[in-house]
Q: What sequence folds into this?
């Protein structure tokens, strides 16, 4: 089931999310709903707080080539356990901050540990767009948005535009 997205500014997007300790059917359904919501948006990653759930769950799929096989990933309690000194800069956007983009510099490679939907622990390395995406989504679990990586003026400009859009939408 497609879920509604939480749009910035919203206090839920700035909260630290709780670890997931129960991987029951409700959590797996949430993961499936998040994948459906992400693909429908369309996006390449989504964190639980973006659908109003303050738990440590992210989904991602950075396969964007036309005709390529999708590679959806579900990560409960993901954490970066190592990061490269080398950096990459990508233009990032966010489903919770629609139509706003900015260049963000992050480690080029990260090692991430997580639990999958069946309760198995994994650890893997990510680079390129996958590294950027997984870091962006884990940031959400810590109450951090991509605009928090920007200078204060640019961050304030984006936040003001989002506030204005929310006011206009509320009046419509």
A:
């Amino acid at each position: 089931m497609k879920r509604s997205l939480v749009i910035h500014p919203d206090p839920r997007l700035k909260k630290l999310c709780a670890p997931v300790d129960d991987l029951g059917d409700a959590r797996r359904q949430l993961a499936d709903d998040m994948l459906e919501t992400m693909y429908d948006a369309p996006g390449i990653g989504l964190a639980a707080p973006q659908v109003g759930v303050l738990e440590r769950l992210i989904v991602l799929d950075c396969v964007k080539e036309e005709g390529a096989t999708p590679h959806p990933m579900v990560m409960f309690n993901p954490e970066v356990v190592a990061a490269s000194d080398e950096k990459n800069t990508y233009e990032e956007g966010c489903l919770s901050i629609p139509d706003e983009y900015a260049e963000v510099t992050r480690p080029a490679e990260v090692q991430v540990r997580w639990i999958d939907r069946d309760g198995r622990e994994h650890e893997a390395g990510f680079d390129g767009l996958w590294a950027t995406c997984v870091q962006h989504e884990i940031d959400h679990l810590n109450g951090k948005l991509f605009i928090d990586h920007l200078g204060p003026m640019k961050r304030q400009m984006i936040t003001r535009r989002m506030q204005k859009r929310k006011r206009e939408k509320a009046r419509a």
